[in-house]
Amino acid sequence: MRQVSVDTVISVPREEVYDFVADLSRRPAYSDHYLKDYRLARANPVGKGAAARFLLDAPLFSQRGGLAITEADRPRRIVEEGRMGRLGRSRMVTVYEFVAQGGGSTRVELTTHAEPKTALDRFKQRWVHRWMRRQTETALERLRKIFEEPGGAEPARATVAGVEPGRGPRFGARVARAR
Predict the structure, then answer these.
(1) 23, 39, 104, 175: which has the fewest Cβ within 10 Å?
(2) Residues 91 and 65: beta-carbon distance below 8 Å
(3) Domains, the chain, ranges and CATH?
């Protein structure tokens, strides 16, 4: 897939936008239209080392993938690296850049790039860059609306494989079994 770059301007300080994007549990709030079955791979969803798994729901093919935050330079940049496709052969990189604009607003630049490993993967990803551009533009527009349009419900959040963190036992505490 070719490199795809999109951007938008959000009328809030870049620290707020950075903190929202750096929390992978909040990703479904603006990306669930093309990242299906999104779940966290680690308990800590924030910052360097946070990871998630998903299904990239492309029109002609769907591919499983996973990503991890490899660089988190608050409030300027987030770099996510991952694998997708059969056996995780194709490498992908996503870079978020947060640039302060005048009047307390932020320009968010999102760049995605995938490197298909085999000829079959290259064939599958031949036209996906156009679809990916539309999906990432929609995602950034939804991110802008979260900050700029007040009201509405609480944005969706992902959990670790469907576990509710407030309900589980803490650090090896025993759980009474129902008989």
Answers:
(1) 175
(2) no
(3) 4-148 (3.30.530.20)
